[in-house]
Amino acid sequence: MFQAALGATLPVALWRLPNTREAQALVSAEVKHTLPSMEGPQSGFAFYPFQSSGAVPVTFLPADLYFSGKAGVSPQIGEAVLPTSFWADFQKTGQKQSNILEWPSHPEGTVKPITRDVFEVSGAKAIKAMQSGCLDKVVLSRTKTLPLFEGFDLLHAFTQLTQLYPTAFVSLVSIPGIGTWLGATPELLVQVDSYRVFRTVALAGTQPVMEGLTPADAIWRQKEIEEQALVQRYIVSCFRHLRLREYVEMGPRTIMAGNLLHLRTDFSAAMDEVGFPKLGTQMLELLHPTSAVGGMPKAAALQMIGELEQHDRRYYSGFLGPVQLGQETNLFVNLRCVELGQDTVTAYAGAGMTADSIPAKEWVETELKMQTVLRLFQASES
């Protein structure tokens, strides 16, 4: 499905949900630039930017062809008609497909690279502002671009990520005029399951996994504890904004995500029981961008990001995932991700800064986060 979609220049998404084995796929006849309700009835795949603009629009891929990945189950065909060139390529099931794929990249090319000195100077300015009481937290991001090594196999890289990170949401999204993104994110943003239970998480605080230690052995500094508490309080404030009082809160606890440890608190609510049948859609509007990728207070943090960051985040720290497929919506924050150019790969990562942050340590944190996916591209550095 993925190869045939690229050949016919159609938008396509390939993904594997956390703690599952099946890779799922979806092909669309066209891109829509508005999101449907998270509770249905329209199904598809959402790919949403950090902040939308003409160059990075909101995108939604209707499920015109969807495969659940389950053995013995045929792909589901939607209402829109896919071109004959796609079906001709798709039906070549008996022939070995070429590993040489040409994927779309962003029409404006790669984003501006961010050097260590620039990142640390920006971080120092943000920390100074927080120490003076202007805001509580801001997340500053950076990029790193490498050349693609000869023989790089995009689908093999996706498969490698599914094997390396069984608890992550692993995705490969390719949209003409938008670009191609690969990632393995640990952070759930909005879930509406088949029992109509809403879920979201507060995820913040980062430290590397130490050999021989389990998550139960993790010791957290005050800076990480406060950073996670800010995200937690923000989710609670969204519930209060809706006047929802009946929800379940569990955590915080330490979880492992690839080569990193994080603090995580889980929230849930039975939508029909609490009288909020559209809670997924309502919370999505309030949550994005969360304080885990923007900061607190939200408006002041976003303003500071606009002033200090010298690159466009595009779809990094936006959100993505299937909408009403398998009677579920599963949206994740687009973290631990890379953007593929024609012959380059660009990684994005951010660090949550508070008044107690040290810019040099925040740079190291972004390096660790980038390694989640960049480890697949290290041959390009040699």
UniProtKB/TrEMBL annotation:
In this chain the Chorismate-utilising enzyme C-terminal domain maps to 119-369
Under Pfam families, the record lists:
Chorismate_bind (PF00425)
Entry's transmembrane regions: none
List, alphabetically, the SUPFAM superfamilies matched: ADC synthase
- InterPro entries, alphabetized: ADC_synthase, Chorismate_C
Query: Can you name this protein?
Result: Chorismate-utilising enzyme C-terminal domain-containing protein
